[in-house]
Amino acid sequence: MDAEKEAKLAQYRKEYPAKPPQKECLPAECILLDETDGVFLILSGNFPDVMVGSPPTTDPERLSNKTRYLWVLTPTATPSVLENVNSTKGVVVAKHSNLTGGEPAHCGGEVWFAMANKIFLSGSSGRYGPATQAQWVTTVELFRKLGFLVADLGWDEGTNRPFAILKGDPEWQ
Predict the structure, then answer these.
(1) Which of 4, 29, 57, 129 has the most other CB atoms within 10 Å of its CB?
(2) Cα(145)–Cα(2) distance, rounded to whole angstroms?
(3) Among candidate residues 61, 45, 59, the one with its CA nearest the CA of residue 2
(4) Residue 165 belongs to some domain of the structure
(5) What are the pLDDT digits (tens) for 11-31?
């Protein structure tokens, strides 16, 4: 990542300090996954062939979505992994805490790749989701500033949490 992008990421980390997981991890949920499990650094721009897909549009679809990746912004990295991981460590369904080893993170969510740098982005994470709508908006802007064309799944003002499903047509920015 070039110096300008590193500076933007550093500013985000300063504005939104890392926080511990919002719920406790079971032992298997804190196993730290790595490159051998398919983990890549999403904001590096250098990642393997990703599965192309789109986010669910209904709650039942959400349960069976096979192209969902998880992402986390940690104090030192930006790991991402396919949720239905084929891990050498025995993890079958990855959790955000598998990207941090249960350590603090700034934010996390879900992503679907329409193509390498064109993504559907959600802040849906039970452990590291954005604390506020303002943090979510800043997170989406960070991904855009770092080179992604983003369709934001948005924020549910009724629950004060990010949407986990796509509502309506995507708006690419």
Answers:
(1) 129
(2) 12
(3) 45
(4) no
(5) 999 999 999 999 999 999 999
